[in-house]
Amino acid sequence: MHSWMHAIRQIGAPGSSNVAVASTPCQRLHAIASCCVQQHWWGAGLGEAGCHAFGRIAEAKASHANFRPLHNVLLGGNDIGDECMSVIARLAARGLFKELRALGLSRNKISDAGCLVLAKSLGAGSMPNLRDLFLSANRRLGDACFGALGGAL
Asked: Can you tell me the distance from the alpha carbon of 82 to that of 114, in angstroms, rounded to the nearest whole number?
């Protein structure tokens, strides 16, 4: 198990304290999910497990009074795929992305199936302020993805 995965489990555990100084990716996941409107994770190596952890932490923190809706979520180069698109759609459906302006998903392993989940979420209006969607260098994307996105936007 990656050390950051262990720390995410510890951080996300009931009764865990907030991390004031965030030095590892998992500590930054926790700290950013609780306080910041920008999440820049380019090349952090999160993978699907890290994306799921981010989703759980963001959902838990969204119920706190000091939570601010996210404006930028940049997850490029993280080996995330279709599972993470389901996490993103779930977060969007729960209102966490209502202020989202930029969603960076380039250089990952997203296929048409994950893109269709994302397009459905966009079509439902769960990201009304989204202006920038980055999907370049996802080699599994094809015409079905871009047709669905065109219909959703």
From this structure: 4
Backbone angles phi, psi at 40, to 5 degrees: -105, 110
Closest to 52 measured CA to CA, from 9, 93, 94: 9
Look at residue 125 and give its three-state secondary structure.
coil
Tokens of 96: 């966490």
Cα–Cα distance, 93 to 138 (Å, whole number): 24
**pLDDT, tens digit, 9 for 90 and up, residues 60-119:** 888 877 777 788 889 999 999 999 999 999 999 999 999 999 999 999 999 999 999 999
- Type of residue at 27: Q
Task: Give the number of residues written for the chain.
Answer: 153
Distances (CA, A) of 81 to 50, 78, 98, 112, 125: 11, 9, 22, 10, 22
Please give the Cα distance from 3 to 86 (Å, whole number).
Answer: 24
pTM of the model: 0.76
Exposure of 143 by Cβ count < 10 A (0-12 exposed, 13-18 middle, 19+ buried)?
Answer: exposed
Residue showing tokens 């030095």 = 23
Segment 24-62, tens digit of pLDDT: 555 555 554 444 555 667 778 889 999 998 898 888 888
